[in-house]
Amino acid sequence: MEMNKSDAAGQADAKRLRIHSAAIAEFSERGYTATSMANIASTAQMSRPALYQYFANKGDIFASAFVAVFEEQVTNALAELNPPGSPAEQVDGFLQRYEGDLWQRMAASPHLDEIAGHKTAHVGEAISGEITRLWKGMATYLREAAPGRSATLKAARLGWLEMLQLTPKGFRFDQPTVETYRRRLAALARSVAADIEATRE
Predict the structure, then answer these.
(1) Alpha carbon distances (Å) from 167 to 100, 103, 171, 184, 192
(2) CB 180 within 8 A of CB 188
(3) For residue 36, is it within any domain?
(4) In a domain, 7, yes or no
(5) Mean of the per-residue pLDDT values for the chain?
């Protein structure tokens, strides 16, 4: 029985995900330079020729896997902004899924600097679009959580957005443990949520 196009596409997507998972594991363990197509193929439990049916080279796999991880983080973060939950829980969930989970992935690798420094133009463009999606979602959340058209409220919402965007960068300055970083994110969430709640009184 011949496979229909939908089934074939589904199988191809599943294999790409398997390759992504294998590549992320290999890059994390070995670093970008030391990882070979043979390493990725072995971890993905497929032959090198089969691997080349889906990706042109190691750089192609790296870009695809990196973007896929980032897209997943953004989607998971935005999902945390939906009810139920208090503003503190929602904002903390957003920060933990985006910032916290990403830091946990990165901090687990001894090759963090090499991996972070190997972003290609393609990766940068794709991530830029995801970052825009992320912060548009948060801006919408803040408008709904603290509605109003006054200049004071608009300035407050802009301040919260900037705080959520910029503060986590400072939190990473001393290369904290994952636990410490997550605790800092939770404190930031509580601070922003307290301001949101204050506008409702």
Answers:
(1) 13, 14, 6, 10, 11
(2) no
(3) no
(4) no
(5) 90
